[in-house]
């Protein structure tokens, strides 16, 4: 991620008088061109970075400049470290881990124990349970393509099961609803598309270089309002019993439950009616019933009968 690299470069420049661009490029495994873009971004942030020419030249901070530690309160540093911990668990980046150690090292000895306690009171870990090797491999390929500004080719299966071969320009990785997406420009469609990482297979970083396009963050497709506007959303009323109440609490929160009678609870939630919604309701198990709308209850009933029929056929043939 760019932000952890920028912070790391600033900390490194505070410790060393001058650093060669190639040394930074090798350290962070990026191109020299990327390093110079990073230096420009640091300068625009108000930190006086100077490029010295000649045999003893390199990149350094203006003589006498110091990053004022008082600019950051203990709470500021704690929040930064907790954010970096979340990035580390999600992306598995060694640069993030190194940066975490650097932040810990700038804390005075007298406050290190208290700092350690405060930064372990709240942990955000977006990584899934179990073996994540396949997802991590895809993430690595996409990150590699983005850092080199090269297109990534892959086979994609959409929600309807249609399979297409894609070669796109990856711009942004998006983590939303515990699912990874790639926001990329698709030359075939001549527009930006959002690709679900789990639906991608065999990603390959190509030799084709692309120029990053301007993004308007006001109209990005993972914006909640835009997503709801693009799909018809209606309220579903689900009924839970005593055995399934914990599922309602886990998914919707304790305050969403309305007790109809002893041991019977209902939850009204807005959902777009699609294949995902059907699968989600079925995944809640036999102790959950659709109360409204009636056509959805009939749909789930037919799907449950079809599932049961499949198992009857398997049992009879075995």
UniProtKB/TrEMBL annotation:
InterPro entries: CBASS_pafABC_assoc_protein, DeoR_HTH, HTH_11, PafC-like, WCX_dom, WH-like_DNA-bd_sf, WH_DNA-bd_sf, WYL_dom. Pfam families: HTH_11, WCX, WYL. It comes from the Bacteria. GO terms for molecular function: DNA binding. SUPFAM superfamilies: Winged helix' DNA-binding domain (SSF46785). Gene3D superfamilies: Winged helix-like DNA-binding domain superfamily/Winged helix DNA-binding domain. Keywords: DNA-binding, Transcription, Transcription regulation. Residues 2-57 form the HTH deoR-type domain. This is DNA-binding transcriptional regulator YafY.
């Amino acid at each position: 991620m760019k932000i952890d690299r920028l912070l790391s470069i600033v900390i490194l420049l505070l410790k060393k008088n001058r650093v060669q661009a190639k040394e930074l490029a090798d350290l962070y495994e990026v191109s020299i061109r990327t390093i110079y873009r990073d230096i420009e971004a640091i300068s625009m942030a108000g930190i006086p970075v100077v490029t010295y020419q000649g045999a003893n030249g390199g990149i350094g901070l203006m003589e006498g400049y110091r990053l004022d530690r008082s600019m950051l309160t203990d709470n500021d540093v704690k929040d930064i470290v907790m954010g970096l911990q979340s990035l580390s668990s999600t992306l598995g980046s060694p640069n993030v881990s190194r940066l975490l150690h650097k932040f810990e090292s700038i804390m005075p000895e007298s406050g290190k124990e208290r700092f350690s306690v405060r930064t372990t009171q709240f942990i955000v870990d977006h990584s899934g349970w179990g073996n994540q090797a396949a997802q991590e491999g895809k993430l690595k390929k996409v990150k590699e393509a983005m850092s080199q500004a090269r297109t990534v080719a892959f086979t994609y299966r959409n929600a309807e099961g249609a399979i297409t071969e894609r070669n796109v320009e990856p711009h942004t990785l998006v983590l939303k609803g515990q699912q990874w997406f790639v926001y990329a420009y698709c030359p075939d469609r001549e527009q930006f598309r959002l690709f679900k990482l789990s639906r991608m297979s065999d990603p390959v970083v190509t030799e084709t270089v692309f120029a990053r396009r301007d993004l308007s963050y006001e109209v990005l497709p993972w914006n909640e309002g835009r997503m709801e506007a693009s799909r018809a959303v209606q309220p579903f009323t689900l009924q839970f019993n005593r055995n399934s109440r914990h599922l309602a609490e886990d998914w919707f929160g304790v305050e969403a439950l309305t007790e109809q009678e002893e041991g019977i609870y209902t939850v009204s939630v807005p959902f777009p009616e699609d294949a995902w919604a059907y699968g989600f309701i079925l995944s809640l198990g036999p102790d959950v019933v659709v109360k409204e709308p009636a056509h959805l209850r009939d749909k789930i009933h037919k799907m449950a009968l079809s599932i049961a029929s499949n198992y009857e056929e398997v049992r009879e043939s075995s």
